[in-house]
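Quick one, T. Sequence first:
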Amino acid sequence: MGNEKLISLQHYESPVGTLLIGAFENRLCLCDWAERKSRESIDRRLCRALDGRLVTQPCSTTEEAMRQLDEYFEGRRQAFTLPLWMIGTDFQRLVWEQLRGIGYGATCSYGALAAALGRPRAVRAVASANGANALSIFIPCHRVIGTDGTLTGYAGGLEVKRFLLELEKRNR
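Structure tokens:
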């Protein structure tokens, strides 16, 4: 049992719902909505990839993530500085890196994201990768919208997505 790897987990009460904040080896690996539909599959993916288990306990990385989230929700932070552990397929990580390039207060369509990756026909795959993001807000999947400008799926729900986009628009 002494060699067991632990993923530190804390609950963060945001203005729009509970986020689970997780860290492993001083890197943030989870910032995700507690009530999302694929909660268990995301958690299993993390535990399997890191060969560890989730344990509710604070650590310096989760504490810093919560401090940065406080600043974000107060409108005082536009960029995050924590090292991230993006756990997914090569394609998912490619999409997530692309998401990180969408500026604060800006939006991008799934089609534009696919085109930027050089895969203009991979819109559904890009949307699927977006939905598998376990680092909400830190990897800003909320900034992806439909080609016609409508708000489309979000793990935290469309009201949360709208709130985040309006928060960023106000504080840009």
